[in-house]
Design a protein that fits this description.
It contains 35 helices and 22 strands. The longest helix has 30 residues. Helix 12 packs across helix 15 and helix 22 packs across helix 26. The radius of gyration is 28 Å and the shape is globular. It folds into three domains: about 110 residues, no CATH class; about 270 residues, 3-Layer(aba) Sandwich (Rossmann fold), CATH 3.40.50.2000; about 270 residues, Glycogen Phosphorylase B (Rossmann fold, 3-Layer(aba) Sandwich), CATH 3.40.50.2000. A hairpin with a 5-residue loop joins strand 13 and strand 14. It is α/β, with parallel strands linked by helices. Bound molecules: ligand T68. The site of ligand T68 has 20 residues, from helix 7.
């Protein structure tokens, strides 16, 4: 290990550890039972399945930690360039199964645990889902960690250890209720609290100017101090010894205290003030596409940024070297603008603390940072009021002005007398009150900016960031998102994974998904098709059981499983989906009983997803779905031709059950508004067909799997503006197709109850305020749905299409995405630590 210690001592240590860390059945059992007794202080003769989960997790954690420590040392020893992935959210999902699979120990544990009286699958169920994220953005960060570990990239994630993750969603009488998610109730065996890694974080205060050697210096002082403490979460790669780190920060009261307030004031009052510090990292903001200008949110962002930059600089300074090496040693990736204040913070440290010249410091910052944009929705773009910033981070505001001044001077040189351009490029929005545009700051402070799918990256350079693109075209890139095949095939679809491994004669496809393309010659093979159908059916059975358990609804296994699960948002158009369902229902009702089964194919339409607590229209859409479900599911005329299910509390764990069981999944956003989508990739990998618009990654999915294997409909990005104008100039009764008007009428009549609410929901779009163009796309959506039915009637055809989707999905592995980030943005290479158990020590 490590440095120049004497070898015999090392050898002795290694032997001691090896006897503990062996992976034969007995050693594993011994370690589990010891954890029951010594870690949990439960008797080894009587422990529950929950205690089994805890002990097993501790036993797996032991196996992670050795690799984790060795990896960190190895990176330090080789002094490699490191990637820091900064994200305000990491939506990790459960650890246990993922860790066992990545360590390739699932079989060993299964056997060992069975003998102790437990079934590993039911042990997995004991783990609470760490849900420190809202949706796509946070889950992307989690997939990226898995890929960075697997590809041996020297990377660390940095985020926040919220005490409360995304709320738990209950559906009662068709309404969403939000229940706090205190996920740490039973402790968290996967984290390592670093009692010795604490950084001070300052808020408020003032900036004092002094003069030193003829130069002005700024000193930020006063205000309040809190501490950020590190919690490390080891992330094992698959089929590699490398184990990287997700470091999450928690806020605590600062240790040094103000004698005055304790001596003169009220003791309890003074303690209360300190307690407030803990509140900063208490709760994750549950908005996924709407920015809220709350001070607490800015505090969270700054805490993440300030602690991380201190940690990064401490590591850089461990070796004596010149500051000019900084961009060769670090690459900082900003997952959206939430951590963008890191740009200002690093610059502040370099000029105020390290006394570097501003131009030089700026060059270092700019070359180290890169920024990923995840949305063009205007309501989601972060803009912080000047007053808020001036109060909370006074020195940062000064530096923002400085950056902006220097930047705009350069722009003026290139484009003299172009005030319009200047005001669109400026970090400051000249509104009343003035605001700081975080996207502009992120672009100016980064050497690379990327969108998350080809169509989205194009939109960035032609619309939202057009002026920036004209200034520096080479800065702009595309990095199409991806998802990890470990969690999204190997863990969640064990049978499909087995089929691939059998057919390909090994499991190296898990780290090289392009291999599944080799199964192209099996597409027509009847036996392979049978296997494929059998697997889908078994996955459907599992979901059927889950639905019965969680919704009390019996669903028909022979029906088409049609799923739309994602955050509730008007742009994602769950609304259009349910309007279509109503139309389908009305058609069934109009058909005579003897004709119904000939004319209609049984479908089970499932929805799932959380609405932001303050998003009224999203909540009304949930109510509409549930009201329609109530009506339809109890209509004896319909029987099992149509069932509607609202899957409550959609999260990573139940996604792992839902996705492999899905036959048709809906990705139907208004063109141009879904940056990428990542669930579309997961569904395709698991053999679901897509009904969708030419939006986000759907476009590239169509390129890969073939348009003939998807159900594509709707307006294209270039049509949108024209359609919106058209809508404004058309009579509403003419604008909507008759099928849709009929549906509106039924809702209006109170056919589904909740009249007031539902009327309000439909009234916005009926009054030509159909911003998301449901009216314009409805006809072609109907046609696409018809094609779905036709294709599903032909079982062989459907199976073939399903296979083609799955085996052509390699592009959407996050391994591909991360390799591109590493090569084209970060400039980092893999460093693989040799596995000590495979090399003689
Ligand atoms: C999503 N964004 C995009 N945002 O909507 C999706 N926002 O198209 C894309 O595939 C995904 O990012 C990954 O690139 C989000 O998920 C948020 O969750 C979010 C959270 C806080 C504030 C703003």
């Amino acid at each position: 290990f490590g440095s120049q210690n004497n070898l015999t001592q090392n050898e002795k240590m290694w032997k001691l550890m090896q006897s503990y860390i062996n992976n034969d059945k007995e050693t594993i059992q011994q370690s589990i039972v010891n954890h029951v007794e010594y870690t949990l202080a439960k008797t080894r003769f009587d422990f529950s399945v929950f205690h089994a989960y805890q002990a097993i997790s501790h036993s797996v954690r032991d196996r992670l930690i050795e690799a984790f420590n060795d990896t960190a040392q190895y990176f330090t020893h080789h002094d490699c360039k490191r990637v820091y992935y900064l994200s305000i959210e990491f939506l990790m999902g459960r650890y246990l199964q993922n860790a066992l699979i990545n360590l390739e120990l699932e079989e060993n544990y299964k056997e060992a645990v069975l003998e102790l009286g437990y079934n590993l699958e039911s042990v997995y169920e004991q783990e609470v889902d760490p849900a420190l994220g809202n949706g796509g953005l946070g889950r992307l960060a989690a997939c990226f960690l898995d890929s960075m570990a697997t590809l041996n990239i020297p990377a660390w994630g940095y985020g926040i250890r919220y005490s409360y993750g995304i709320f738990r969603q209950l559906i009662k009488d068709g309404y969403q209720y939000e229940v706090p998610d205190y996920w740490l109730d039973n402790g968290n065996p996967w984290e390592i609290e670093r009692l010795d890694v604490n950084y001070p974080i300052r808020f408020y205060g003032y900036v004092r100017k002094i003069h030193e050697n003829g130069k002005e210096k700024s000193i930020w002082e006063g205000g309040e101090l809190v501490l950020a403490r590190a919690y490390d979460n080891p992330i094992p790669g698959y089929d590699t010894y490398n184990t990287i780190n997700l470091r999450l920060w928690r806020s605590l009261p600062a240790r040094e205290f103000d004698f005055n307030s304790f001596n003169q004031g009220d003791y309890f009052k003074a303690l209360e003030e300190r307690e407030k510090a803990e509140y900063i990292t208490s709760v994750l903001y549950p908005n996924d596409s709407n920015y809220s200008g709350k001070e607490l949110r800015l505090k969270q962002q700054y805490l993440l940024v300030c602690a991380t930059i201190q940690d990064v600089i401490r590591r850089f300074k461990k070796k004596k070297r010149d500051w000019k090496e900084l961009p060769e040693k670090i690459a900082v990736q900003l997952n959206d603008t939430h951590p963008a204040m890191a740009i200002v913070e690093l610059l502040r440290v370099l000029i105020d603390h390290e006394n570097l010249e501003i131009e030089f410091a700026w060059e270092l910052v700019y070359r180290s940072f890169s920024y990923t944009n995840h949305t063009i929705l205007p309501e989601a773009l972060e803009k912080w009021g000047i007053d808020l910033l001036a109060n909370l981070l006074p020195r940062h505001l000064e530096i923002v002005y400085l950056i902006n001044f220097i930047f705009l001077e350069k722009v003026t040189k290139k484009f003299p007398n172009d005030l319009h351009r200047l005001s669109s490029l400026s970090i400051i929005e000249e509104s009343n009150p003035k605001k700081i545009r975080m996207a502009n700051l992120s672009i100016i402070g980064s050497h690379a900016v990327n969108g998350v799918a080809a169509i989205h990256s194009n939109l960035l350079t032609t619309t939202l960031f057009k002026d920036f693109y004209e200034l520096r075209p080479k800065k702009f890139q595309n990095k199409t998102n991806g998802v990890t095949p470990r969690r999204w095939i190997r863990c969640c679809n064990v049978q499909l994974a087995q089929l691939y491994t059998e057919q390909l004669g090994g499991d190296t496809w898990v780290t090289d998904l392009t291999q599944v393309k080799c199964l192209e010659n099996m597409v027509e093979d009847p036996e392979f098709q049978n296997n494929w159908q059998r697997i889908k059916r078994q996955n459907k059975e599992q979901l059927k059981w889950w639905v019965k358990e969680n919704c009390g609804i019996d669903i028909n296994l022979d029906s088409l499983f049609d799923v739309q699960v994602k955050r509730l948002h008007e742009y994602k158009r769950q609304f259009m989906n349910i309007l279509y369902v109503i139309h389908r229902y009305l058609q069934i009702k109009k058909t005579t009983a003897d004709q119904r089964y000939a004319k209609f194919l049984p479908r089970t339409i499932m929805f799932g997803g959380k609405a932001a607590p303050g998003y009224i229209n999203a909540k009304r859409i949930i109510k509409l779905i549930c009201s329609v479900a109530d009506k339809v599911n109890t209509d004896s005329e319909v029987g099992d031709l149509l069932k509607i299910v609202y899957l409550p509390n959609y999260n990573v764990s139940n996604a792992q059950i839902i996705i492999p069981a899905t036959e048709l999944s809906q990705h139907i956003s208004t063109a141009g508004l879904e940056a990428s989508g990542t669930s579309n990739m997961k569904f395709v990998m698991n053999g679901s067909l897509i009904i969708g618009t030419m939006d986000g990654a759907n476009v590239e999915i169509a390129e890969e799997v073939g348009k003939e294997n998807m159900f594509i409909f709707g307006a294209l990005v270039d049509d949108i503006e024209g359609l919106r104008n058209n809508m404004r100039n058309t009579d509403p009764s003419q604008y909507f197709p008759p099928e849709l008007n009929e549906v509106f009428q039924k809702i209006d009549e109170g056919f589904f109850g909740a009249v007031d609410e539902l009327r309000q929901l439909i009234s916005t779009i009926r009054n030509r305020n159909d911003y998301y163009l449901i009216g314009a796309d409805f006809k072609s959506y109907l046609e696409a749905q018809k094609k779905v039915d036709e294709s599903y009637r032909n079982k062989k055809l459907w199976t073939k299409m399903s296979i083609c989707n799955a085996i052509r999905s390699a592009k959407f592995s996050s391994d591909r995405t991360i390799q591109q980030y590493a090569d084209e943005i970060w400039g980092v290479k893999a460093f693989q630590i040799p596995n000590p158990s495979q090399s003689a020590r």
